[in-house]
Amino acid sequence: MSTPVSPLAVPFPEIAPVAGVELAVGHAGLYKQVRDDVLLMRFAEGTTCAGVFTQHAVGSAPVDWCKAQLGGGGEARGLVVNAGCANAFTGKPGDEAAKRVAKAAARLLGCRKREVMLASTGVIGVLLDDDKITARLHEMEARLSAGGWAAAARAIMTTDTFPKGSVATAVIDGVPVRIAGICKGSGMIAPTMATMLAFVATDAAIAPEVLHALLQRHVGSTFNAVTVDGDRSTNDTCLLFATGRSGAPLIRRAGDKRLADFSDKLGQVMLDLACQLVRDGEGASKFVKVEVTGAKTPASARKIARTIAESPLVKTAVAGEDANWGRIVMAVGRADEPVRRERLSIRFGELTAAEDGAVSPGYDEARMSAYMKRAELEIGVDVGVGRASAVMWTCDLTKRYVEINGDYRS
Amino acid sequence: MSTPVSPLAVPFPEIAPVAGVELAVGHAGLYKQVRDDVLLMRFAEGTTCAGVFTQHAVGSAPVDWCKAQLGGGGEARGLVVNAGCANAFTGKPGDEAAKRVAKAAARLLGCRKREVMLASTGVIGVLLDDDKITARLHEMEARLSAGGWAAAARAIMTTDTFPKGSVATAVIDGVPVRIAGICKGSGMIAPTMATMLAFVATDAAIAPEVLHALLQRHVGSTFNAVTVDGDRSTNDTCLLFATGRSGAPLIRRAGDKRLADFSDKLGQVMLDLACQLVRDGEGASKFVKVEVTGAKTPASARKIARTIAESPLVKTAVAGEDANWGRIVMAVGRADEPVRRERLSIRFGELTAAEDGAVSPGYDEARMSAYMKRAELEIGVDVGVGRASAVMWTCDLTKRYVEINGDYRS
Fold first, then answer.
1. CB–CB of A405 and B320 under 8 A?
2. Scanning every residue of chain A, which has its alpha carbon at the shortest distance from the alpha carbon of B309?
3. Among A263, A279, A295, which residue terminates a domain?
């Protein structure tokens, strides 16, 4: 049953405490095997919160819950996350199960239930057995501590093969503030917030609507710029919490210049987490950056990059260490975006495979083959129409992916 | 090197001669191994022709050639098809190589070069070595005969594991006419004419623009309603030839009622060929019909059906014989089309898995598992919004698919 750790895994970072944030994990028994499957987080009074969620048409009870409480940014004192059950496609009983979890946590944390955020991940169509979770909350509350980010990252894993975390320090008006985050997700990582849970906390003091704007600013080039198989989940959630306990001044406007370094560092943390999702793409053996340049518009560049990054033929060629640029031409064409055939060029790393619409005169199969053996690859495509560009991160499509996804429920 | 025949293969039909059509195959040496790789077809004087082609933005020399000659329907006396080289993304030299093949064939057949249609399939980005083809045309012309459809279907195969053909007899104004077709394609079979070559001939007498209208009428529900991996090729071509040698009256208007039976039978032949492409989907072990009902518009139904049919998570679940309807919910949501969550229902064959937005009360895992072991499956989804429907045919995504596509060039 146990899956080997992805060859592309990166180590979990040292995460020092973030003032105003406490964590605890517990074993609710949502899996057959014994493992921690619930995470409780407590945030200091006055913590602001913003979230971005799946755009999936069906959605899930915990996502509906958070959206209803948060809108464009709000306050939060607690977070309960469970693995093992997505509580999606479970109708009104699912909504009520979610609400009972929020209510129980609110009672323990001494806050209103609308200040408790929820997230669930696992098999969908199965009603959440909320009793199993609420029965554990009391002992978890007793164990809350400022450490334990790695354990938290482990407790929310599903098919993940390694825990994912990232950390940074920024300066706001001369005061250092900390940013720490964890995430989970390995299959179904696609643009528009695919099966992915990410929780990022900072001790900066940031007004809810500014927090919301920051999240929106970075999500497109981070979590929405990674793809494993193009599928998307009912439960995707990224929540950002700001406790205000760093001593840095409260930022009330998204345009405040004192936010520049924080915004950069937040973007770095989100990109680091997003790329770890790809590194743990189910069965992945190669980490691939796809860069499209020369497109007519940024949206066109993104669509071409995504079409390449999601093409099963490109992804299997990468798995086979085959610099099959012909398949990239296929994918480019399939995007139905403006492309100038006679100016199209394709490179793998620094090696040009095709230029001016035909195979490159300097094409060297031996050097190309050597490059393709690397674990981290870059595919560059210039479509020769304009000046817009976009980047997507993806992984290869291997036999292991099919194996994992062919027997997930068994 | 040799690939086992798909478990979903169907036998090649008996195809009796179609008046006015002759075929011959030859060995041009476009593959390392010894095999027939060129097909020559000769059509009687006055044969009309229509084609539909890839919408791929990059395209290929033979597709550009046919489109330039045919427009909305024209005349044709010959067809030269080669496997082993797509002659795509080869710039002006590729166009010239294609033209030289047409010219050589025209000289042999005693027609104008614009009456010779061309099609190529194989690796892209490699210039067609047209000498190898033209050197064989003379001996092939000498061997032209009214039989040999199965050999023709074999000569155009690439990764196909079985030759594909279909045949029907229709009646036009009391006169029986014959329709026969062959096709090739196994990977990259996607909507909008993905890597697929199909050639259908009839001895009916049909004006070019009527032939074109017929092809357009049926392509959406046949070749464009099948998908293997969502990828699309530079070379997709479907050509329809009508020799007029049956003795049936010439049909000059698409609305002519005498065309009804012919149109039905043509649709059947095209659907049969299209489904054989799916049956030979690379690594396929299951043939899956996806039917979406209750959609707002036909386009919406088609988009939802296609999103389900192309979802790697749905396709790997089918490979694993797992009735994972949760993944179908995922795919439905991902289509970004109107769906009423509380009325969504999902069935596998006659077995309802989900209804009214939640798992079905009568859900029986044992019966469902037994159903999923079949080689031919039907997935039905009602999205509860309107009355529009659509059907797509697809196959599962197996480890074998990844194997085949990871080392195609080696």
1. yes
2. A231
3. A279
Quote the domain boundaries for residue B158. Answer: 21-279
Q: Are residue B355 and residue B318 in the same domain, yes or no?
A: yes
Q: Do B231 and A311 touch (CB under 8 A)?
A: yes
E strands present in A203-302: 226-227, 237-242, 287-295
Q: Mutate which of A54, A55, A58, A285 to test chain B, going by most B C-beta atoms within 10 A?
A: A58
pLDDT of residue B282: 83
**Mean pLDDT value across residues B99-109:** 98
Angle between helices A325-334 and A298-310 (to 10 degrees): 130
Q: What is the pTM of this model?
A: 0.82
Indicate the residue among A279, A311, A331 that finishes a domain: A279
Q: Are residues A229 and A329 in the same domain?
A: no
Task: Find the helix or strand (DSSP H, E) in which A174 lies.
Answer: none
Do residues B294 and B355 share a domain? yes
Q: Are A294 and A387 in contact (CB under 8 A)?
A: yes
Test B330 with A232 for CB contact under 8 angstroms: yes
The 10 Å CB-count burial string (b at 16+, else e) for B145-173 is eeebbbbbbbbbbbbbbbbbbbbbebebe
Instruction: Name, in order, each residue with C-beta under 8 angstroms of B326's C-beta and a sequence gap of 6 or more.
Output: A86, A88, A89, A123, A124, A125
Residue B133: DSSP 8-state: H
Taking the CA atoms of chain A, what radius of gyration do you get in angstroms? 22
Residue B108 inside a domain? The answer is: yes
> What's at B259, amino acid-wise?
L
CA distance B158 to chain A (A): 15
The per-residue pLDDT for range A130-157, each reduced to its tens digit, is: 999 999 999 999 999 999 999 999 999 9
Distance from B300 to chain A by nearest Cα, in Å? 13
Question: Biggest alpha carbon distance in chain B?
Answer: 70
Is there a contact between B330 and A405 if contact means CB atoms under 8 Å apart? no
